Amino acid sequence: MKRENLLIGSKVIFLPQCSSTNDLAKESAQMGELHGTIYRCNSQTAGRGKDGKTWHSIPNKGIYFSVILRPEKNLPLCWLPYISGISVCESVRELFNLFPAIKWPNDVYLEDKKFCGILIESSFGREGIDYAIVGIGINVNHEREDFPEDLREKATSIKIVAGKEIDNDLLFEKIIEKLNFWYEKLALNQISIIHKTLNSLSLIPIGSNIEILDGKRIIKGEFRGFNVQGALLLKERRMIHKIYSGEMISFNV
Ligand code: BTN
């Protein structure tokens, strides 16, 4: 069977609590679990973020899930974080009439604060990619006091912005629908629509001054959008850098 014939979310394994849905999904992928299977938990005791950070995953407030993907070998993987962020943005916009934006590479913001993080972990064999785990954590019904003090100025939730309680399951289902839509575009190599949507959902306006931490190097310059290979374009004096990974450590919106 071709991998893409299976839909994302055709099998959802729900647990009230787990250590980390990414860890569960990874173990299960290593045991041969199929493309599209999702692990979802109501709370995580060891939720992981990027760069070894903790993802605070308190019970009954957020959405925490991980998708097992088994992409075809030629699928351009650099678009995976973007289609995940796009799926979250469009779901929140369509359901709640809010306007989230993507902060490169894969954070999703509402009113200049982060409410969603995406952690992608991939495993490669001799013939290329074996599986990718797309882990998505969303602050949905959190109050300000639910965040640790050091995060209160940087983090938000959909409830805080919408001013009302949000139906987690409804949002989860919508995101799965969107992930299927965008993953299909990617599998069919329809990059130009993904590229256009990414540029339209960028938190950072073109022309803004930004700083990117790329390994140990900090590059400062002017944000010039994304190219069709998925690279962030950064103009530093006369040079345009194409940046595929890193962290945006300073920006003005
Ligand atoms: C980040 O912004 O640092 C990424 C956060 C990713 C959090 C999600 S929650 C579901 C999945 N399981 C984890 O342990 N992490 C991801």
Structural account:
With 253 residues, this protein is of the alpha+beta class. The protein has five helices and twelve strands. It has helices at residues 21-30, 80-96, 158-162, 168-187, 191-200; strands at residues 12-18, 38-44, 63-69, 101-103, 107-110, 113-125, 128-138, 209-214, 217-226, 232-236, 239-243, 247-251. The strands form two sheets. Strands 1-2-3-7-6-5-4 form a seven-stranded mixed beta sheet, sandwiched between helices. A five-stranded antiparallel beta sheet has the order 11-10-9-8-12.
H/I helix tally = 5
> What is the percentage of strand-forming residues?
25-35%
Major sheet: size, sense and barrel closure?
Answer: 7 strands, mixed
Average pLDDT value? Answer: 95
Indicate the radius of gyration in whole angstroms.
Answer: 18 Å
Query: What coarse outline follows from CA principal-axis ratios?
Result: globular
Q: How are the strands of the biggest sheet laid out side by side?
A: 1-2-3-7-6-5-4
Structural key phrases:
253 residues; five-stranded antiparallel sheet; 5 helices; 25% helix; 33% strand; globular; binds biotin
